[in-house]
Amino acid sequence: MYNIEIIKNFKSRNIEVTFFKTLEDVKDKILDLIPINSTVGIGNSKTLKEMDISRLLCERGNTVFDKTLAKSKKESKHIKKKSLLTDWYITGTNAISKDGHIVNIDHSGNRVAAMIYGPDNVIVVVGKNKICNTLQDAIDRVRNIAAPLNAKRAGYKPPCLELNKCVDCKTDQRVCFNLVIIEGQYEKDRMKLFIVDEEIGF
Ligand code: SF4
């Protein structure tokens, strides 16, 4: 799975790429990389839930802002805001292209906001199932695969759930108000992309 072209293409956009065999290896790397006295924001992601990273960071002493641990909508909103100015931000993404784009589809936009600006360091974890040949393939993936499955996970029922494709709906069940393409980073090595040789998330 190791691909020198992918590394080269992301590097040319100031994004560092590392390949990992398993999600377990990624977890160890993250725990090693992030100092215990750092604050950490977490983007809502099936991949991160599988790693149980929030609990592990909390237990060893990091201050963690993870909205999925909130007990109310008010607290969730507060956590989302706090996570925008953390030392580190860890998130999944919905697709990457081989030529170096990170493509995201997001509901309220807190996750993509933190990826773009705020936290000093950003780690993006992605499984091999989300590697797309072109930017257009990545956009098609986030609209027609990631959005419907995320809607299902969150208990929404937009039309794409039945149709298996996006129809740019305007219903109150819409889950994707932000389609964000990260083309690169102004600050070199602020963003690290961890690609895992496993099928994870959607
Ligand atoms: S715009 Fe509507 S139909 Fe399209 S992916 Fe989003 S929720 Fe689904």
Structure description:
- With 202 residues, the chain is α/β, with parallel strands linked by helices.
- It has one domain: Rossmann fold.
- 37% of the residues lie in helices and 23% in strands.
- It contains eight helices and ten strands.
- The protein has a six-stranded parallel sheet with strand order 1-10-7-4-2-3, sandwiched between helices. The protein has a four-stranded mixed sheet with strand order 8-5-6-9, with helices on both faces.
- The mean pLDDT is 95.
- It binds iron/sulfur cluster.
- It holds the Pfam family LUD_dom.
- Residues 5-196 form the LUD domain.
- It comes from Thermohalobacter berrensis.
| Model regions low in confidence, pLDDT < 50 over at least 5 residues | none
Mean pLDDT across every amino acid position: 95
Enumerate the strands of the largest sheet in spatial order, edge to edge or round the barrel: 1-10-7-4-2-3
Overall tally of domains: 1
Keywords:
six-stranded parallel β-sheet, 202 residues, globular, 23% strand, single chain, Rossmann fold, binds iron/sulfur cluster, alpha/beta, four-stranded mixed β-sheet, 8 helices
